Amino acid sequence: MTDSGAIDDDSVDAGADAEIVECLKLDAPRSFFLFAGAGSGKTRSLTEALKKVLPEVRRHLRLHRQQIAVITYTNAACDEVRHRTEFDPLVKVSTIHSFVWSQIDGYTADIKAWLEQELNNNIAELEEKERKGRGGKASLKRQRDIRAKSERLADLPSIKKFTYNPDGDNFGRDSLNHAEVISIGANFLTTKPLMQRILVNAFPIILVDESQDTHRPFMEALFDVQCKQKDKFSLGLIGDTMQRIYGHGLASLGQNVPPDWSTPAKAMNHRSPKRVIELINRIREPVDGRQQQARSDAQEGTVRLFIAVSGESSTEQTEQKLKARMAEVTGDDEWSNPEGDLKVLALEHHMTARRLGFSELFESLAVADRLRTGLLDGTLPGLRLFSERVQPVIASRQSGDEFAVAVILRKWSDLLGKKTLFAAGDDQTRTLLEASAAVDRLVELFGNGAEPSFLDVLHVVAETNLFPIPEALQPFSDRSEAALFYEVSAALADVEDDDREELSETTRAWGAFLLTPYSQIAAYRDYVNGLAAYDTHQGVKGREFDRVFVIVDDAEARGFLFPYEKLFGAKDKSATDLKNEQENKETGIDRARRLLYVTCSRAMQSLALIIYSEDPRKVREYVLRESWFEEHEVELL
């Protein structure tokens, strides 16, 4: 391949990039929606546009104390944009939750008024449901929710300032949760003209990456701001509706773009090989007809679909055999190498948790809605105590790295904190020995092949004051295992006991978690840090891997949100599916198609899919009829 071919590839989308730059001129701002399919280089387009525009608008922004806001989906994406824009102080890069909180933080009276109305409405709705509903667990949950919301309502007058952490738990009486921050921000922007003026005066340009998955209420609020402030405000949306993963996104984004908006589009896929691009184009074609083209220097690539009967064999053994088969087909031994560079994508988190060996940890906490987000992204303080403090210090001591032990304790432990060392004066040796003894007690839990629970570890941490105990775990620090087991078991079974304190959903979840084996924390830590070989279909948006192995198993996924059996033709559409199609409403099949598109488009060299189906032959017939795969690319097991 000649250099000129590569240069031509890089220039295919130059017109779209130039169009974006024109939209960001402050003297004639124009809003835009940039269609950027998988592997199209949307982050590059965004950052290159900023680099070209900033020299022209820098003086104006400084003079008016303004910035350009870039809202991205993850902290990792924030870091990438900051790095590419060379940490320019005129570019404010943040996640959606961080950005919204920065706009409403300090408006305590307004937040109180919103919360008071919201809580009163919620209580009224719950009381009406309780009046009409049945008894049992549903009634007990409604009653608990009514009490909790009533208590929170009573606390509102005494709150002087609200707190919020975009990256962690928010359980204090003065704290807001993630959904509330989005709802409050959206409400303020649409009902308070002053808030709109403040926003536009601070940020004449707002760019939203992954806009298809940005929370619907806030996106609608931004559209409202743009409509009313279009002469001095540019709203730039970058995304692809085919890559919308989460239900909270704006489904109609890209379909009803205002006529005065610019709509540039990128045609190239710089990531995937030709065969993968052909596949994702076929998967996408019935939705909107958009097609991508491969680079002229792209390799051909390999795709395979394996089909097995669901529930008839060990999935782990089957998947290991298929990795060996892919190594044979591609001539690439990394497929069969246990330490190889291969990313396995499963449909649900509990599927990956089971394969990686932390299913008990995961299942115990996943039942609590308020804990689920922090569980999935690794930000729960109760979990971080073990994953980011206890586990590293144990590993360092066991490997003989005393310097690493000291670094961890100096950073996280009060035993070696500045105040403790200062108070010790000349007797700091004794303080160091006490800290080392606390670590010894922790390591002793694992002697002779012992398998302590998280509760066992928590007891030692609490007794030695090795690390501060997060608020969520403090009620358990002196609880015996037998007592905790009874309380959790009784709560789950709704056992009536006047002497037993009623446990909330989150407290019950933490209790169940503490009874699980501590050994599962290492695999969980690797998983949330992206170091494990496994991930979920939803967790890899924006990422790319040389080899991708997609696992599809509706039965194991235990859900109905993504019915792959229907997408692959093994099951007929339901009456509800047909009705939704006629009314142009989203179906589970639509969601499954989008998720399949996202997972397949992660592959940079080769791609394999295994679908466990009740009717493998129907699946084979369907994918061949739709020209997703050729005959030699489909193998029935």
From TrEMBL:
Protein name: DNA 3'-5' helicase II
Sites where the protein binds ATP: 36-43
The keyword Chaperone appears for this protein: no
ATP-binding is among the record's keywords: yes
Single GO molecular function: DNA binding
One Pfam family, short name: AAA_19
PROSITE patterns registered for this protein in UniProt: UVRD_HELICASE_ATP_BIND
Organism: Pelagibius litoralis
Domain of life: Bacteria
GO biological process: recombinational repair
Keywords associated with the record: ATP-binding, Helicase, Hydrolase, Nucleotide-binding
Domain UvrD-like helicase ATP-binding: residue ranges: 15-286
Record PANTHER family: ATP-DEPENDENT DNA HELICASE SRS2, UVRD / RECB / PCRA DNA HELICASE FAMILY MEMBER
